[in-house]
Amino acid sequence: MKLVSMLMFLPLVANAATSFTGCSIPQQSQLNAAISAAQSYISAASAYIDSHNSATPRYTTWFGTFTASRHGAVASIFGRLKWNNLASFTYDCSTCHEPNEYAYVYPNQFGKIYLCGSFWRAPLTGTDSKAGTLISQASTFTQNGGAEAYDFSQKGCKHLANVNPEGAVQNADNYQYFAENNPPLS
């Protein structure tokens, strides 16, 4: 019955179109590229987590000391993200006027991402990328596990993983950096 429910949902997700609010044609083009790159990052990160059931440099860098429980929590969030179709989300390019912020969401408003000034200056992929920003924001939706925003820098997220693995597993940007995997860790 659970599988049937999921299969009934898939065509709705697959056929959903991207919605843009206040986005110029160039911004829409950048977003479409970021969506595609983010989906690739999510697929790769989810496959990595599913195939590694013990400590690895990549896992411990972003999520700290390995435990089965924390690994399960990370796998759950990436699993939920994998089922998202970021191309079905709504992207608002006109509401946020903060030049030094990347984006924000309201956790209970699934599928709507508000983009800010730093997003448009970010590279498509790599560290602090447009694709990574979409992953970070999507991970904060309650439906995806409700990650929090404790720390935003790569250095800060590594430190959080080292001193507070539970916090790292709950921090949206740790998911972003794990998915971006830059520089590459095995």
From TrEMBL:
Keyword set includes Signal: yes
Signal sequence, start to end: 1-16
Residues covered by the Lysine-specific metallo-endopeptidase domain: 47-180
Coiled-coil regions listed: none
Domain of life according to the entry: Eukaryota
PROSITE patterns to which the protein is assigned, alphabetical: PROKAR_LIPOPROTEIN
GO biological process per UniProt: proteolysis
Keywords: Hydrolase, Metal-binding, Metalloprotease, Protease, Signal, Zinc
GO molecular function, one term: metal ion binding
Cofactor: Zn(2+)
Family, similarity comment: Belongs to the peptidase M35 family.
Protein's name in the database: Lysine-specific metallo-endopeptidase domain-containing protein
Provenance organism: Entomortierella parvispora
